[in-house]
């Protein structure tokens, strides 16, 4: 299948590693020009070099999503390097784990600015150019916790759920402009972040890391963690031209983890 995004410009947030980098690689493999961003210059430089070594076109800028000035700086940098944004992948890091009842309000506010307001601001900045061309793709990476709250990830459950309502509202507003807006919900995709969560669970419970992973795999009908490549392939499809009638959706990539229909 021709995804029809060769020559399109894609901005992928939080893409120096993990799911963000996986998505950037998948889009580059389909011929999109990708712009990476994150807080660590060295990681971004290596990631861009790897994409270019595979024949892709990429650029990068180190930036902190918690800084209110970042969305404007990113849009200007992308436009200058690769052109106006056609595909926006809203991806952010996760907040500290813990029970919602124990969460500090200042931590929640800080994470809200980094995980929610930054996404809303970035999207608002790139939408006018998408409207002008009559084509755009906005994908927000969420979490299975949006549909089935994850124990000990209270802040993440709350903030990513707020993005679900925002995403659906934006999809309704932008559908007639040729812009699709979807959320992509990962389950247990094997990344450094998942390793950190599993490691924390092992430390708290006194179990070994493998025991924690075995118990986690037992909750997944597929019986295993997903790969970054599997997840990124779904993101690339949602960014494609053939996905033009898919909007306002929350798409799961979780091996059957969520039990609801």
UniProtKB/TrEMBL annotation:
Transmembrane segments: none
InterPro entries recorded: NAD(P)-bd_dom_sf, SDR, SDR_fam
Signal peptide annotation: none
Xref: Pfam families: adh_short_C2
Domain of life: Bacteria
Gene3D superfamilies: NAD(P)-binding Rossmann-like Domain
PANTHER family xref list: 3-OXOACYL-(ACYL-CARRIER-PROTEIN) REDUCTASE, NADPH-DEPENDENT REDUCTASE BACG
Stated family: Belongs to the short-chain dehydrogenases/reductases (SDR) family.
Protein name, UniProt field: SDR family oxidoreductase
Organism field: Pseudoroseicyclus tamaricis
Upper taxonomic lineage: Bacteria, Pseudomonadati, Pseudomonadota, Alphaproteobacteria, Rhodobacterales
């Amino acid at each position: 299948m021709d995804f029809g995004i060769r020559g399109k410009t894609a901005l992928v947030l939080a893409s120096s590693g993990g799911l963000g980098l996986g998505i950037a690689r998948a889009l580059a493999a389909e011929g999109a020009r990708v712009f990476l961003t994150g807080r660590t210059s060295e990681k971004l430089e290596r990631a861009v070099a790897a994409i270019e070594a595979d024949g892709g076109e990429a650029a990068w800028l180190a930036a902190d999503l918690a800084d209110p000035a970042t969305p404007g700086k990113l849009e200007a940098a992308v436009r200058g390097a690769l052109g106006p944004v056609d595909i926006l992948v809203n991806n952010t890091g996760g907040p500290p784990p813990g029970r919602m009842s124990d969460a500090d309000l200042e931590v929640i506010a800080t994470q809200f600015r980094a995980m929610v307001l930054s996404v809303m601001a970035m999207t608002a900045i790139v939408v006018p150019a998408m409207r002008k061309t009559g084509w755009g793709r906005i994908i927000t990476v969420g979490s299975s916790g949006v549909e089935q709250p994850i124990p000990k990830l209270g802040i993440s459950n709350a903030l990513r759920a707020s993005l679900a309502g925002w995403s659906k509202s934006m999809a309704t507003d932008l559908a007639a402009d040729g812009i699709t807006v979807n959320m992509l919900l990962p389950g247990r995709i094997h990344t450094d972040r998942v390793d950190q969560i599993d490691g924390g669970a092992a430390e708290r419970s006194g179990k070994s890391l493998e025991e924690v992973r075995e118990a986690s795999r037992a909750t997944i009908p597929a019986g295993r963690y997903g790969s970054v490549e599997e997840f990124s392939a779904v993101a690339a499809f949602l960014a494609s031209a053939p996905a033009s009638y898919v909007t306002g959706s929350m798409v799961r990539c979780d091996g059957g983890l969520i039990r609801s229909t």
